[in-house]
Write a structure and sequence with these properties.
about 45% helix, six-stranded antiparallel β-sheet, about 270 residues, two-stranded antiparallel sheet, 2 domains, alpha+beta
Length: about 270
């Protein structure tokens, strides 16, 4: 019996060698390495960390850039993952799993906050609302499920943009396609907003689509600390005798919901 164990291991090793695809392995090595980086890497750093030949890394990186799996920094000296893998994942059942996990949390939030809430993801230049829960009261405001909303003039869009690497943000903005009614924004103003949102960890500001609404938005963070989605409550304040949760209370409840759904919980 003891003699069979190394034979089985050797057989597995032989099978692994038989079906090796060196070029594919190189490409996957690069993608897996870049997935762990927050600020990208230079070609020299990638070559050193992977222990590969510089010329083969150059060719592989050029193909990954051409196929839009990897993007260069504006200066052209650093490489990072694009959002293509992320977009492909949203055409796959993991998105359904995100919705399935998010809906119970969103429903509990809506009941406690007495407000509606929606979940949006980045999709090909703007945002797609993939889940929506109404508040329990007779009054409320909601965003229709499946709607495409603006990337740069909504709380959801700005939070998703704020929690990206510089390279990923540039790629998203380059892909940006305006939706109906979307307001143009000055880039310098946007950059200030991104910094403030990152420092605060969320966004809370008056809606740029409707009067009297305060958009409260938190990111759903992936393992690397980048936003994979945004959870937004379009807060509507009651002015009658009924005492509903305040915007501060709702902000705290939404933070708890976002943390519960995030993969990065530092």
């Amino acid at each position: 019996m003891n003699r069979q164990t190394p034979i089985a291991v050797d057989a597995e090793d032989n099978d692994a060698d038989r079906y090796r695809a060196p070029a594919l392995d190189k490409g996957l090595d690069i993608l897996e390495l870049l997935a762990e980086q927050k600020s990208g890497l230079t070609r020299a750093e990638i070559t050193k960390l992977l222990g590969r030949n510089a010329s083969e890394m150059y060719r592989m990186l050029e193909r990954l850039v051409a196929r839009q799996y990897v993007v260069r920094s504006p200066e052209g000296d650093r490489y990072s993952l694009s959002l293509k893998l992320y977009a492909l994942a949203h055409r796959h059942p993991p998105t359904n799993r995100l919705i399935a996990e998010a809906l119970p949390v969103m429903q509990r939030f809506a009941e406690a906050a007495e407000q509606s809430v929606h979940l949006a993801v980045y999709d090909r230049g703007n945002l797609l609302v993939i889940a929506q829960v109404d508040g329990p009261g007779a009054w409320g405001i909601s965003v229709r499920l499946g709607s495409r909303v603006g990337l740069i003039d909504t709380g959801s869009g700005r939070v998703i943009l704020a929690f990206q690497t510089d390279e990923q943000r540039e790629h998203m903005l380059a892909e940006h396609t305006k939706v109906k009614g979307e307001l143009p924004m000055d880039r310098a103003v946007l950059d200030v907003d991104y910094q403030q949102i990152r420092e605060a960890g969320f966004s809370r500001k008056d809606s740029q689509q409707s009067f009297g609404i305060i958009d409260v938005t938190f990111p759903l963070l992936g393992p690397s600390g980048q936003a994979i989605a945004a959870l937004t409550c379009p807060y509507m304040r009651r002015i009658d005798e009924y005492v509903a949760p305040s915007v501060e209370d709702v902000t705290a409840l939404l933070k708890d919901a976002a943390v519960a759904l995030s993969m990065s919980r530092d």
